[in-house]
Amino acid sequence: MFNSVNGNPFQKIESAFSAGQESKQQQQQKDEEERNYLEDDDQDEVSISQRPELTEDDIIYLMNEYISKRKSEYEDNQKILDKLDKYKSKFDVKKFMKNNPHLTISDFNMIMFNELSGILN
Predict the structure, then answer these.
(1) Global pTM value
(2) Closest CA to 81 of 67, 62, 92, 60
(3) Among residues 22, 59, 62, 99, which is most buried (max CB within 10 A)?
């Protein structure tokens, strides 16, 4: 009589169990999709500044300009001027570009600041 009034109780338990499995599978599928999306997203290159990459000639020109500005700032300190001249004479543009690929002008200024901070301090 219990089975005839409420139906089969084992069937309801089975239904709840299968519903739990379905939600778990859906969650796993969502996690998998999100993981795939993030992996695909990591492979994209993002160019924040949208500026063109610098060529060798650009880097040489910018390096000379940067050093001349620093020389004008420290024109009363001969020791720093000598160090800047030495850096300029030893500057290897190919090595610089190899160590710092895909440079924009913003990147260049940041790198030059970091490289010359030891000389200027």
Answers:
(1) 0.56
(2) 67
(3) 59
Q: Are residues 116 and 69 in contact, defined by beta-carbon separation less than 8 angstroms?
A: no
Residue with tokens 């993002």: 46
Rounded to the nearest 10 degrees, the angle between the axes of helix 78-90 and helix 105-120 is 130
CB distance 25 to 32 below 8 Å? no
Helix (H) / strand (E) element for 85: namely helix 78-90
The DSSP-derived string for 6-25 is: H--HHHHHHHHHHHHHHHHH
Structure tokens given for 103: 């440079």
pLDDT at 45 > cutoff 60: no
Range with the lowest mean pLDDT among 10-19, 69-78, 105-114? 10-19
Burial (CB count <10 Å: 0-12, 13-18, 19+), residue 119: middle
The dihedral sign for the CA sequence 72, 74, 120, 117 = negative
Average per-residue pLDDT for the chain: 80
